[in-house]
Amino acid sequence: MTDYRREIRFGVFPTPNADSVERIMDIVALADRTGLDVVGIQDHPYQRRFLDTWSLLATVLARTERVHAFPDVANLPLRPPAMLAKAAASLDVLSGGRLELGLGAGGFRDAIGAMDGPVRDPAQAASALVEAIQVIRRMWSAERAVRFDGSAYRLAGVRPGPPPAHPIALWLGVLGPRLLAELGRSADGWIPSSSYVPPEALPAKHAVIDEAAAAAGRAPSEIRRIYNVFGSITPAPRGFLHGPVDQWVDELTELAVEYGMDTFVFGTEHDDLDQFHRWTEEVVPATRAAVAAHRT
């Protein structure tokens, strides 16, 4: 059993389809109006049906007042880290401190290569992500000029800025032991998805993060654990994350107090607006109360 006892947070994961702008904005407005914490936007620039994630994030932040937004997760090979840091800091300033940064090493290598991005093998992609974390941190720093000489990225005295409006959280969407350990040493959060990492796989990955965090002098509880949860709220049980509200509350509470997750970002098939209403109005408040009751 693992409960890092972090505040429980909730969000939504609308699909960035270019033909569904009104639906996306309805979902985002609902999240903002009902007091959710985050909006996550996936980043697949090679997907022809998708809007550009950073353009959409800017629009989401411009049309909301309190909810935070983040790329879930940014495609590093197609987003050079110095420019990624600049874009993130700029949106953070423009939104009054409501941008967080999710970052991934980049899957779908052939599609990345088709857009003239670097085609890296898994080891190269991992090394590039480790370097990118350093570049981004330094581009948000107060250094006079940043120099960096890595295998994937090089900076030759660039002046960082503007500084973000708040300390932007750097969350990694990673799965392998090398990058999970790097996360424990240097990042602020972990973003797995229920479709790739089922609950039974979470403890072993937490252990890698926690061991590296402790070795670096960090408390494992400093690291946020964000879970993209994909499913449906249905009248009758149909399996994990597919069932009635009570089932969702039980499963999310277990994920929080036994499996260590603290932030739940909900996505559902076809971006059914009724599903998002049920999430925000029924599942979220009941889960907050259940976790609080369990902890006391």
TrEMBL record:
Record keywords, A-Z: Monooxygenase, Oxidoreductase
Pfam families in the record: Bac_luciferase
Superkingdom as given in the UniProt entry: Bacteria
Luciferase-like domain sequence ranges: 13-232
Matches recorded under InterPro entries: F420-G6PD/mer (IPR050564), Luciferase-like_dom (IPR011251), Luciferase-like_sf (IPR036661)
The keyword Protease appears for this protein: no
UniProt GO MF annotations: monooxygenase activity; oxidoreductase activity, acting on paired donors, with incorporation or reduction of molecular oxygen
Oxidoreductase keyword on record: yes
PANTHER family, sorted: 5,10-METHYLENETETRAHYDROMETHANOPTERIN REDUCTASE, PTHR43244
Protein name: Luciferase-like monooxygenase
